[in-house]
Amino acid sequence: MVFAVVRAGGRQEKVEVGTVLTTNRVVADKKGNVTLPAVLLVDGETITSDAEKLAKVTVTAEVLNDLRGPKIVIQKYKNKTGYKKRQGHRQELTRIKITDIK
What we know:
Belongs to the bacterial ribosomal protein bL21 family. By secondary structure, the protein is mainly beta. It has one domain (about 1-100). It is about 5% helix and about 65% strand. It is built from one helix and ten strands, in the order E-E-E-E-E-E-H-E-E-E-E. The strands form three sheets. Strands 2-1-5-6 form a four-stranded antiparallel beta sheet. It has a four-stranded antiparallel beta sheet with strand order 3-10-7-4, with no helix packed on it. A hairpin with a 2-residue loop joins strand 1 and strand 2.
């Protein structure tokens, strides 16, 4: 069983080959692939956390599609002053599938 912990979109995610995850928007190369930096690698009984060895590890993923997250409504209100503010936000997201851990 091989899995890795990668840094993806400002968070750390535990991934295996075939894992589909949604991260903040990432830019793919011309072939539609993304390389993610590994933070930890577990290969059977061996656990690799050394930075020099992890620099040689590549975790590649293919971009499935770009999407937008749910709308978040931000409301501010101050009593007795008449101040009201309403604002919305939708996060730009990318769905990726892990294809290889070397």
